[in-house]
Amino acid sequence: MNRPILDAGKMRAAEARAIAAGTPVETLMERAGTALAEAVFQYAGIRPALFLCGPGNNGGDGYVAARHLAAKGVGVRIAAFADPATDAAKWARAQWSGPVEDFADCAPAPLLVDCLFGTGLTRGLADNVADRLSKLAEATRVRIACDLPSGVSTDDGEILSDIPNFDLTVTFGALKPAHRLMPAMKAMGRLVLADIGIEAVGDWFEIGKPDLPEVAANAHKYSRGLVHCLAGEMAGAIGLTATAAARAGAGYVRLSTSSPIAGLSMCIVQTGTGTLSDPRIGCIAVGPGMGDLPQILTLALTSHAPKVIDADAIRHVGDPERLNGHDAILTPHEGEFEALFGTMKGSKPERALAAAKACDNVVVFKGPDTVVAAPDGRVGFAPAAPAWLASAGTGDVLTGIIAAFRARGMPSFEAACAGVWIHGRAAEAAGPAMIADDLVAALRQVLA
Residues with Cβ < 8 Å from 362, sequence gap 6 or more? Predict the structure, then answer.
């Protein structure tokens, strides 16, 4: 299931709609604080807790959560950075019957809950606040953030102040871009999304487990999807792509190469340059291992079949408008992205969207925080994936997975999102000592 992602402005608008529809802001805060308390209790148990509360509604959520945890028998203390400044936060503070300590000189506790600042922070914390938060975090055993770690920019994932790493982040109504964008993402720990009765609607979401095409009872190898791969200077890369396409469910994988590639499965048919006019081709994969042979991309672009364009092929596109009218999925990493689209301003999803519109095709902007953008405004954010995906050949595997799903009839955006999700889960299954070959092998387990 795809989980919605809203930036700060859209989140405020969603909350305003809920309030206008008759849900008081205090009710929303009570729900958020209750959900935070439950998540804290489930994660950390009854260990003594210190809540750090700021002046806004994030602090208000903390007062509510502290009240509910205390009712469960947890030893709870609250330290306030400042007095509540919003009516809802003042209401929440009034419901708390215990003392409120001074943030500047409070003692640490085994459990720290950061409710200082959440969605909408636009500048860094004051040096004394950031330093105090860091020292309290260093002296604790478990760290939990309410909504976002204090010091994170909601919409682009930038870190505005030095922040500690958290074990758990609990957010409400919808995920925020920073939850799935670097560098902030690495500080989140596990991520919990609580439903507080806000209708979160939009075109941005976290990519969830995909619905893959079922294999029909009367299927044959061509109806299950023919992926045609184009080899270049480095045979190993396109070999990984072809093998991944086969493992991801393509009914038939064909590879055009000027000389046979050793070690490939016998089910992958190696041919000469062949024809790309074959109407049975469901998707062409071009770019992995292509090297400095731009004519291979040109050959791919003579075909009307859908195509996945990766690696060296991206650098040889030239003008993004060259791809207008083609049915393509591009899979650049940062360097390839800038080589084709130049230096763009904005957050990673904003840049990916601008690129998708420039080439009128789906763009998979790879990295530790991969995003998938479509020209119609949809953006899928990859869930967290293992850092060990950053190794040679894993991008070639992703190209093959996406090509297989596209050849099997999935629309381009859905095929790209499905490929990204499966790719990450295969890395989890393969384990930290994996190489790209192991990633391909893990597809069997994940797809089962």
Answer: 328, 329, 330, 356, 372, 373, 374, 375, 412, 413, 416
Tell me how far apart the alpha carbons of residues 131 and 162 are, in angstroms, rounded to a whole number. Answer: 8
- SS3 for 193-226 is EECCCCCCCCCEEECCCCCCCCCCCCCCCCCCCE
Q: How far apart are CA 154 and CA 170, in angstroms?
A: 14
Which of 339, 363, 361, 360 minimizes the C-alpha distance to 350?
363
Q: In whole angstroms, give the CA distance from residue 49 to residue 143.
A: 10
Q: What pLDDT digit, counting tens, does each position of 330-378 carry?
A: 999 999 999 999 999 999 999 999 999 999 999 999 999 999 999 999 9
Question: Residue 387: how many CB atoms within 10 A of its CB?
Answer: 11
Determine the longest span between alpha carbons in the chain, in angstroms: 79
Q: pLDDT (tens digit, 9 = 90+) per residue, 207-230? A: 999 999 999 999 899 999 999 999
DSSP 177: G
Three-class DSSP category at 60: helix
Give the whole-angstrom CA distance, residue 45 versus residue 265: 51
What the block records as the tokens of 411 is: 């629309």
pTM: 0.96
